[in-house]
């Protein structure tokens, strides 16, 4: 699903080349001079109060939303948009689904739109693939350091528990037969099972090299297939492979009751979701309350939620706005 994804890793025990922001705003503070009279202080306080009132009553700016082109990114943008609309903002959806990351990153920097959901590992790798790690806080901080100097300044808000990243998946029958729960369990049975991996696995530093170094698993004879795509799903379903590389929010995982093996050595890049917001927009809104809305959405979204929502889109054929409304209703208000 993450067709634009760029894979990268820098683990604590490995350096392999291949994912928060400050929050809150402040109200104007009365200023005065030491020894000022009571009337001077009262005048300053009154002026400050008037400024706060004027700011709070000012019309809210229209929020221009953008996203990458695949459905999960569009869904997250819609959820953020509906949460903002519930608080009185007008949302322009023209740039939702605009294209691949190279298109949307440039558009956000240029001010074509104000806000987009991002996968912090992939977003960081887009700018500097040597900095991506398996720790989301590290990835978020590194991405923030880069985006501070882009397009007049872009803020990375709080990242979500929800992550869509590389995952190795087995059927429930395979998990039961070989007692598999984590990647480390595969080493002892690797000669008895067939692996399906991404087509670039042999050269991708977070695939063959990382897995062999961390787990002692040799993927030289693995079947190369399109990862996070139907060929991998079909091979797992048919039993052509017993372990397949998918994305962690692939809806087929939920539909088929497959087991995602825990990456216990933390070899894969952390790709948690976070909103990216232009600083010039934050300057036009009540920053604290605006960020609270988006951070509230992010805090409630989980990987299990994304699996379910993706499944509703792919298999239940629900429209993205309807899926977003149902999730907002169940988890809000924000």
CATH-assigned fold name of the largest domain: D-Maltodextrin-Binding Protein, domain 2
**What is the gyration radius calculated from CA atoms?**
23 Å
Biggest β-sheet strands, sense, barrel: 5 strands, mixed
Give the strand tally: 10
Please explain how this structure is put together.
The protein has 13 helices and ten strands. By secondary structure, it is of the alpha/beta class. It has a five-stranded mixed beta sheet. Strands 3-10-4 form a three-stranded antiparallel beta sheet, sandwiched between helices. Strands 1-2 form a two-stranded parallel sheet. Helix 2 (71-85) crosses helix 11 (287-300), helix 2 (71-85) packs across helix 13 (320-331) and helix 4 (120-127) crosses helix 5 (136-147). The protein is globular and about 65 Å long.
Condensed summary:
This protein is α/β, with parallel strands linked by helices and 334 residues long.
Any chance you could write out the topology, listing elements then pairs?
Blueprint: H1 38-57, E1 63-68, H2 71-85, E2 91-99, H3 101-110, E3 115-119, H4 120-127, H5 136-147, E4 154-156, E5 166-170, H6 172-178, E6 195-198, H7 208-215, E7 223-225, H8 230-238, E8 243-247, H9 251-256, E9 259-260, E10 273-278, H10 279-282, H11 287-300, H12 303-314, H13 320-331
Parallel strand pairs: 1-2, 6-7, 6-8
Antiparallel strand pairs: 3-10, 4-10, 5-8, 5-9
Helix pairs in contact: 2-11, 2-13, 4-5
Descriptive tags:
D-Maltodextrin-Binding Protein, domain 2; alpha/beta; disordered N terminus; 334 residues; 5-stranded mixed sheet; 2 domains; globular
């Amino acid at each position: 699903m993450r067709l634009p994804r760029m894979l990268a890793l820098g683990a604590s025990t490995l350096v392999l080349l291949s994912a928060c922001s400050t929050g809150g705003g402040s109200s104007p503070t009365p200023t005065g001079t030491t020894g000022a009279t009571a009337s001077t202080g009262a005048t300053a306080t009154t002026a400050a109060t008037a400024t706060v009132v004027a700011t709070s009553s000012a019309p809210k700016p229209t929020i221009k939303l953008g996203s990458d082109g695949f459905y999960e990114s569009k869904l997250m943008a819609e959820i953020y948009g509906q949460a903002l609309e519930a608080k009185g903002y007008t949302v322009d959806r023209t740039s939702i689904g605009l294209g691949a990351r190279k298109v949307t990153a440039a558009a956000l920097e240029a001010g074509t739109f104000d806000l987009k959901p991002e996968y912090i590992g992939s977003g960081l790798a887009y700018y500097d693939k040597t900095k991506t790690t398996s720790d989301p806080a590290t990835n978020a901080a590194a991405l923030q350091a880069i985006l501070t100097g882009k397009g007049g300044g872009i803020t990375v808000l709080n990242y979500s528990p929800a992550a869509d990243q590389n995952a190795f998946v087995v059927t429930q029958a395979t998990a039961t037969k070989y007692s598999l729960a984590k990647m480390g369990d595969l080493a002892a049975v690797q000669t008895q099972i067939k692996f399906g991996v991404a087509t670039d696995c042999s050269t991708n530093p977070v695939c063959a090299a990382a897995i062999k170094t961390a787990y002692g698993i040799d993927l030289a004879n693995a079947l190369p297939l399109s990862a996070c795509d139907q060929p991998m799903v079909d091979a797992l379903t048919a039993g052509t492979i017993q372990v397949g590389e998918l994305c962690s929010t692939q809806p087929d995982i939920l539909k088929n009751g497959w087991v995602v093996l825990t990456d216990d050595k933390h070899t894969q890049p952390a790709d948690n979701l976070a909103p990216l917001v232009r600083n010039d927009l934050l300057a036009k809104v009540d920053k604290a309350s605006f960020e609270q809305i988006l951070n509230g959405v992010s805090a409630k979204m989980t990987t299990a939620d994304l699996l379910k929502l993706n499944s509703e889109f792919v298999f239940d054929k629900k429209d993205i706005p309807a899926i977003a409304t149902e999730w907002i209703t169940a988890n809000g208000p924000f």
